[in-house]
Design goal:
With 226 residues, this protein is α+β, with helices and mostly antiparallel strands. Helix content is 18%, strand content 23%. The protein contains five helices and 13 strands. The strands form five sheets. The chain has a four-stranded antiparallel β-sheet, with helices on one face. A three-stranded antiparallel β-sheet has the order 8-12-11, with no helix packed on it. The chain has a two-stranded antiparallel ribbon with strand order 1-4. Strand 2 and strand 3 form a beta hairpin. The model has no long low-confidence stretch (mean pLDDT 88).
C-alpha cells in the first residue's frame, strides 16, 4: 500500500525580529515545519494531530510502515501511533544548530538555552571534515593551520564505528536565554526567562533529561551552562 509523507526542511524568517534566514535562536516561525500524511488505513479520517514529532522520526516511521524495525540504536521514533489516536510519542523534543544553543519544547512552552562563550566544542565523526593540515597563502608566505583530533574512540551511543573527536571554534550568535509560553504567546515575543522561574527550571529539567538519554558529550554540559 502506498503512503504519502510531505514535509519540509527548516523555514526562513523574512524580516521577523529584524533577521533573515534560519539561524539560532530557533523561533517557531522557522523551526515549526509542516507535516502532511496520507495513509490508506486512515484515508477516511482527515484531522489535525497535535503530537510532537521531529525530522529524525521519519526513519523509524517509514520502517514501521513497511513492517520493519530500525537496525541499530536510534533516537528516531515512529509516529504511526499518532495516526491511530494516541496523544503523544514524545513528551518533549530538542532542536538547534551545531555550535550554537539548544532549544527544547513540550508543546506548551519553549526554552532556548544559549551557550556560554569560549567553552569547548568538538565534532565527533568517523571522517575528518577539516583536513589535518590546511595550507593557505597569505601574501608571499604559505601558512599552515594544523587541526589535530584530540582523541578517538566509541563516543556515539549505538554506533559500531569509532569516531574522531576534533576541536572546533564557532562563535556563538546569541548568548541570551529565552523562555516562551507557546499557547498565550504564539509569536514568541515575551521572554519569560527572568520572570517565570518555576517554568524555567521545569523546562531546564526536561532539557537535561533529554541530553542524558541521548548521550550528549560531557563538555556540552559546561558549554551550555547546565
Amino acid at each position: 500500500m502506498t503512503k504519502v509523507i510531505v514535509t519540509t526542511d527548516h523555514g526562513h524568517d523574512l524580516g521577523e525580529r529584524k533577521a533573515f534566514g534560519k539561524s539560532y535562536p530557533h523561533y517557531d516561525s522557522h523551526a515549526n515545519i509542516p507535516l502532511f500524511v496520507w495513509h490508506p488505513s486512515f484515508a477516511d479520517k482527515t484531522r489535525k494531530v497535535t503530537g510532537l514529532t521531529q525530522t529524525v522520526d521519519l526513519y523509524a516511521t517509514v520502517l514501521d510502515a513497511a513492517g520493519a524495525a530500525p537496525v541499530n540504536a536510534t533516537h528516531s521514533r515512529s509516529w504511526l501511533p499518532l495516526l491511530k489516536g494516541e496523544n503523544t510519542i514524545r513528551p518533549a523534543l530538542t532542536y538547534g544548530t551545531f555550535g550554537q544553543g539548544v532549544c527544547v519544547t513540550d508543546g506548551d512552552w519553549s526554552l532556548f538555552k544559549s551557550p556560554v562563550d569560549d567553552r569547548g566544542l568538538f565534532i565527533y565523526s568517523s571522517v575528518i571534515y577539516r583536513p589535518l593540515v590546511v595550507d593557505s597563502q597569505v601574501g608571499s608566505q604559505i601558512v599552515t593551520d594544523v587541526t589535530v583530533p584530540a582523541d578517538s574512540g566509541n563516543f556515539v551511543p549505538g554506533s559500531p564505528f569509532p569516531q574522531w573527536k576534533t576541536p572546533m571554534k564557532i562563535a556563538p550568535r546569541n548568548l541570551e536565554n529565552f523562555l516562551f509560553n507557546r499557547r498565550t504567546d504564539p509569536g514568541q515575543t515575551q521572554n519569560l526567562w527572568a520572570t517565570d522561574a518555576p517554568q524555567r527550571e521545569r523546562m531546564l529539567g526536561i532539557l537535561r533529561d533529554i541530553l542524558r538519554k541521548e548521550g550528549a558529550p560531557p563538555e556540552q554540559w559546561e558549554r551550555l551552562g547546565l
